[in-house]
């Protein structure tokens, strides 16, 4: 029998396929680099097979070449028996009280804010997970994973994580933050009170039922937890996601094929637009859009179409019974901190049960405003401004070389860099007292349990700084949208208009601004010659558009603007006529810094009514400049 002949040639290039990266293989298959990187990111960087399948199934997706990066987030997720019990609570609470905002997500504890990761850096997650696993191996035996039930708020029911796990998880996320930073990725860990939401933004009449269900939910002695890295398409964060429960083959060209196991995402306003129970949506599996019968689908969690990238298990934990006196939880610890994670909440119109499906089958819409509560519109004036606090403040602060010096303790310690410091003359910052006024306002909103889902702000620097201070004190992660419609009447500024800092620049300087927001109007389009009546109509038009935009999602809205805004943004909502110039000037005079008004939605009349603000008034005396040299006379 002949032996094996000697080999004289080195291995061919074909033999090195196993050493090639998934990206290299996809490029060799003929896919463009951008599409290949996107496919790997969207599918969790889980290999060539799943990425190529995704690319082929999305060949008719009109958004295939959109290169916006995925949004990522890290959750601590319950597993095993505890997850099953939570699932039963989720289903029971939905059947008993209808959909609330907690149902948008699976049970979880938020460990960081959403962050962007470029498609070509998705492999960074592997090194982060390795870092997490190494840290977890160094944890000592921590014993019971303690959770404390909180039901005192009328808008939130959930668990809080107690010591020692709370501190260890915080330290872990700081390490994760450093790991991302090394790769040039900005990830902000959740440094507020860690919590798991059981119910949120529900009708207050359901509070006692939801509280009872939560108290009946027992936590097993042994609990399992996993740290998971998820990603989602940022374009879909406000979408309603529906699971396909019945196949449908299109009968017309504009209809969408439905396959069991697939999901459809759509604009929540489709419920209002549809006259016949047919909705326009997009297939999650193919990216193709079309009309589909709503009763062949059922609403589900947005997380059903998120991608799980990597996970790491916590060391074995045990948990005790969490039925504690709810009054032991201190409100000052920040029960609403982190609620901004639910950043595009919408309230369902059917309860997701068999009865709800029958309603769809009969092509009947559920009662209007089912499962929702009246929305609140908060309008607040900015805090104390430098140019009104100090005469000739600019000339006293800036020298001939444009160097800033604080001449009074109430002046800002430092100024935001601007291309031309003279822009501060028409667009001044807050004083130190102004920031404190805004902080007190935000703190009071938090303590009174007022939820805020959306923030719109005038482009004036004093308003942006006010909004930032309010939401920092409130503990919200909701980003503000800069809206020129909210700027005050231009009659105050003739003939020179202010030059504002752009949203992109504000974001660079650390302001929580949504730089992707498209304004309702551009500032340049507002006529310099506008009358007071036109100013009222400008304000009302924007407010109307915002209320309509968020009608299905629900949630309260905060507008941070100017003294005239409290009237101009609410007067026509109440069916009142615009004021003339004299009336307008008189009403503006009575608006102190950080004054707040609240308009409440009236379902019966489709109008809005003013109501007493939920927070106390902010009043303080003046503190004039002291002329010490008078003592020398």
Quick summary of this structure?
The chain has 633 residues and is of the alpha+beta class. 27% of the residues lie in helices and 16% in strands. The chain has helices spanning 22-28, 33-42, 48-57, 80-97, 124-137, 165-182, 207-216, 270-273, 354-361, 386-389, 393-397, 432-447, 461-474, 503-508, 532-549, 565-568, 581-588; strands at 70-79, 109-110, 115-117, 147-150, 156-161, 195-200, 222-232, 240-244, 263-266, 278-283, 289-293, 297-299, 307-313, 317-318, 376-381, 454-457, 480-482, 557-561, 596-602, 607-611.
Mean pLDDT: 86
Counting DSSP E segments of at least 2 residues, the number of strands comes to 20
| Distance separating the two termini | 123 Å
User: Helix/strand/pairing class, anyone?
Assistant: alpha+beta
User: What sort of overall outline do the alpha carbons produce when their principal axes are compared?
Assistant: globular
Report Rg. 28 Å
Low-confidence stretches: 319-372
**Number of helical segments?**
17
Percent range for β-strand residues: 15-25%
Give helix % range. Answer: 25-40%
Main pleated-sheet profile: 6 strands, antiparallel
What does this molecule look like?
The protein has 17 helices and 20 strands. It is an alpha+beta fold and 633 residues long. The strands form four sheets. Strands 1, 2, 3, 7, 13 and 14 form a six-stranded antiparallel beta sheet that branches. Strands 17-16-18-15-19-20 form a six-stranded mixed beta sheet, with helices on one face. A five-stranded antiparallel beta sheet has the order 11-10-9-8-12. A hairpin with a 5-residue loop joins strand 10 (278-283) and strand 11 (289-293). Helix 1 (22-28) crosses helix 2 and helix 2 (33-42) packs across helix 3 (48-57). The protein is globular and about 120 Å long.
